[in-house]
Amino acid sequence: MTAIKNYIQEKRSMFESYMLERVETLLAPDTLKESMAYSLKAGGKRIRPMLLFAALETYGKPVEKGLDTACALEMIHTYSLIHDDLPAMDDDDLRRGKPTNHKVFGEATAILSGDALLTYAFELIASSTNHSPEQSVKLIQMLASAAGPEGMVGGQMADMEGEQKVLTLPELEYIHLHKTGRLLVFSVMAGAYIGGADERDTELLEKYARHIGLAFQIRDDILDIEGTEEEIGKPVGSDEFNEKSTYPSLLTMTGAKEKLADELNQAHDALNALSRPAPLLESFANLIAERTA
Amino acid sequence: MTAIKNYIQEKRSMFESYMLERVETLLAPDTLKESMAYSLKAGGKRIRPMLLFAALETYGKPVEKGLDTACALEMIHTYSLIHDDLPAMDDDDLRRGKPTNHKVFGEATAILSGDALLTYAFELIASSTNHSPEQSVKLIQMLASAAGPEGMVGGQMADMEGEQKVLTLPELEYIHLHKTGRLLVFSVMAGAYIGGADERDTELLEKYARHIGLAFQIRDDILDIEGTEEEIGKPVGSDEFNEKSTYPSLLTMTGAKEKLADELNQAHDALNALSRPAPLLESFANLIAERTA
User: Fold this and answer.
1) pLDDT, tens digit, for every residue of A66-92?
2) Which residues form the domain of B202?
């Protein structure tokens, strides 16, 4: 596990400097830039960019070829957190232990900096020198589809409509596959696409990404019950308190753990069938299974 | 003026059906689609798509070549209105005499349907069969730049920060050139680009678009004082009531009218220097000068 952690650390700091520079050099009002940078800096594990890089390296391509797309991806993930935290949405005051964007900059600026990050993400790919025009168009189409009404925003809408009602397992799965799944799948697909993976490998990697996305979510639900407040950064049991449908609530804890193991097995099966070894992607799947935060 | 009005009417209804179908066929939660369609249907004059079509026809290209880009443009304009109307922003209950999006669907859905329209706009251009990949990338880059932190969102941020303080004329002009100007300029530039205008014509058309954009805004400020409530759809004198800096407040009414005439003259001068006649674009400039609503 040390190799993957070193890998992540090294790539992460390079990636973060590059991304922040993209915002600092914008010709835009200072408050807007500060608000955008505040949430981009708030950190997190940068799982999406790291997955993109890992897929890219599986096909022997340098990480630099995916830098602009990884930035765009992280900006879209970040905008979605800023808007989700708004009083009209989840009304959260804290995210990863820090005040949420609207708590620091006010609601209006938080809405606008989310809009700015979302819009700028597409400009970054469109003006990138990493890709041919064909590649840029394809990446933008894939990313917009993953993030838009048929993807992440649709999942967020379904999640909101499903709150405080008991969901069926297919309804819960629809929400996760869209709200968080589509962007995770894009991370891997973008790396595979830029890396030049063939059709068969691309299908296997899509499978892998869907399964680790669900595994991630199941692990989240389990940690909400079995983790410590210190580990997960929010009160233990908040899903139950909010009467949220979760994997443990629908399947029992034993059933949820079985499903987690099953999703991870399927992710590994997909990787094993690839045309080449993918040790970094293997390690990511294991990290998700073992994470405590 | 009848020719241009007939032109607008005919193109507008074709354009509106096409745009609404793009939303109706989405695989997304119904409420989200209804909220998106509600604001797209709320209408307005569709000035931006019409300017794009007019520029395109100036270069002898069929309107169909610009349909997807015009849809994207109108979706981005519409998302900006939905977010601007939110309680945290301008807190408006009515737009064009109808309840605003959040009044009908609630704030959370209004935020999400704005996000969905913005994201889907880029997907529409990226998946359009109207353009070569080179063209699509260029159009996306131009649109994202016009709509993002260095464009419309930046202008909206500056407008918010400038509220209830007396602005200088350069500050007021910065706001208008960004908040509304950049998207109007994109409308004409996109038509010119798809139409294949040469470099000299492109520069002239950019000038034209900037001047009619400012003229539009000055006329708006004048109408707020001299119009009737019926014509402008909101109480007369609301800018003064809100202590907003406007062209009449900074330049006197006479000065504002002189500046309006000057902007229009410069717009016409730019058109007169074009390599070809542009009767549709001429008529648009005149419509703006004479509009009463």
Assistant:
1) 999 999 999 999 999 999 999 999 999
2) 2-290
